[in-house]
Design goal:
Elements lengths: L1 E8 L5 E10 L2 E10 L7 H14 L6 E7 L4 H5 L24 H13 L4 E7 L4 E10 L3 H8 L6 E5 L9 H7 L3 E8 L6 H17 L15 E4 L3 E5 L4 E5 L6 E2 L4 E7 L4 E7 L4 E7 L3 E2 L4 E7 L2
Parallel strand pairs: 3-4, 3-5, 5-8, 6-7, 7-9
Antiparallel strand pairs: 1-2, 2-4, 6-8, 6-15, 10-17, 11-13, 11-16, 12-15, 13-14, 15-17
This protein binds zinc ion.
């Protein structure tokens, strides 16, 4: 059932409406929220929401509990290909928990939190930006690692990246929900402004697996769930451009590399020169690869998680 979470009039006869699809199982159980579209230029979650809505609507007889799917937390951003909320010049994932009776954006954030805060679990799906491709991963801060790692492992992802507490932004939706007792996993996957179907399918299977493991899904359990690498920030090596030019990758993200393997090269189209070759700094998993070809000295080209 489609429900309105927040509605407000805009100046010229238009409306800002945030909606969700609430799928009620035939049996009582836990409540899971799938949230995406906080950043309007990250679209990987749209496909996951479509797959879940389509599948779960047809299978309510196998569901214990409630699934709420929020495909567009920031609909104005999605409509205008903008990361933040257009017109407000702000990143929507920096204003949570929001507040009532203040600005439109704060009130929208507040209403989303109010709607989700009684859930048991939430999955907040983000994509990378247009510059980088990322393997499917969960990003968890070290303070909540013990509470969330087990849940993140169910999601059929390749990596759980544990961040130090100092980098935690308290104004994110995920931090707000976790502090209210909703176990919330942030997923980062794919590339900005595009959909990577194979990763969407994997997350769909991962979410059904999470439902199965938490007693919300009575149907068949998905098979071949991937076991993610769990890595701290110091296990990740960054590869940056040493020249400005056009980056031509030679490896697919998600592959295992040996130290010294060639990842790609930076070339100069005007003269036909190869400016520099790019090599893996470690043995490990290529978790990130540059998607946008134009690079400047210092641009991030790749991230490799080295084997511990
Ligand atoms: Zn994002």
């Amino acid at each position: 059932m489609i429900k309105t979470v927040f509605s407000a009039s805009l100046p010229i006869d238009e409306k800002l409406i945030i909606q969700k699809n609430q799928i009620q199982g035939a049996f009582p159980g836990k409540r899971l929220c799938i949230v995406t579209g906080t950043h309007g230029d990250e679209l990987e979650g749209q496909y996951v929401c479509f797959l879940l809505s389509e599948f779960l609507n047809k299978n309510t007889d196998k569901i214990c509990g409630t699934i709420d799917i929020y495909p567009a937390v920031n609909p104005l951003g999605i409509d205008s290909i903008t990361r933040g909320m257009p017109g407000f010049d702000l990143d929507m994932n920096r204003i949570f928990p929001g507040a009532k009776d203040t600005s439109l954006s704060d009130y929208a954030a507040y209403s989303i939190v109010e709607d989700i805060k009684t859930a048991d679990y939430a999955v907040d799906i983000h994509a990378s930006n247009i510059f980088l491709r990322e393997i499917p991963q969960a990003r968890i801060n070290v303070d909540s690692a013990s509470a969330l790692t087990g849940l993140a492992e169910m999601l059929n992802i390749d990596l759980i990246w544990i961040h130090p507490a100092a980098t935690v932004l308290e104004s994110t939706l995920a931090h707000t929900l976790n502090s209210l007792g909703v176990k919330t996993i942030v997923i980062e996957t794919g590339v900005g402004m595009r959909i990577t179907p194979v990763y969407g399918q994997r997350l769909f299977n991962g979410i059904i697996n999470l439902m199965h493991k938490t007693g919300m899904w009575l149907g068949k359990a998905p098979e071949n769930i991937s076991k993610p690498i769990i890595a701290a920030t110091d296990a990740v090596s960054f590869v940056n451009a040493v020249d400005s030019g056009i980056f031509l990758p030679e490896k697919e993200y998600g592959v295992m590399l040996k130290k010294g393997d060639k990842i790609g090269q930076i070339v100069k189209p005007l003269s036909g020169e190869i400016l520099s070759e790019v090599f893996s700094p470690d043995d490990g998993l290529l978790m990130t690869i540059r998607a946008y070809p134009v690079v400047y000295e210092g641009s991030l080209l790749a991230r490799v998680i080295h084997n511990s």
